[in-house]
Amino acid sequence: MAVIPVALGGRSYEVRVESGLLADAATHCAPFLRKTRVPVITDENVAQHWREPVERSLAAAGHEARWHVLPAGERAKSWTELARTVDWLLSEEVERGDHILALGGGVVGDLTGFAAAILKRGCGFVQLPTTLLAQVDSSVGGKTAINTPAGKNLVGAFHQPSLVLADLDALGTLPQREMRAGFAEVIKYGILGDPEFFDWCERNGHAAISGDTDLLEQAVARSVAAKARIVAEDERETTGARALLNLGHTFGHALEAQTGFSDRLLHGEGVALGMVLAARYSARRGLIAPDDAARVATAIAAAGLQTEISTLGLTCTGTALADHMMHDKKMDAGTLPFILLRSIGAAFLDREVALIDVSAFLDEQLLAG
Ligand SMILES: NC(=O)c1ccc[n+]([C@@H]2O[C@H](COP(=O)([O-])OP(=O)(O)OC[C@H]3O[C@@H](n4cnc5c(N)ncnc54)[C@H](O)[C@@H]3O)[C@@H](O)[C@H]2O)c1
Ligand SMILES: O=C(O)C(=O)C[C@@H](O)[C@H](O)[C@H](O)COP(=O)(O)O
Ligand SMILES: [Zn+2]
Question: Might you give the EC number(s) for this enzyme (predicted)?
Answer without folding.
Answer: 4.2.3.4
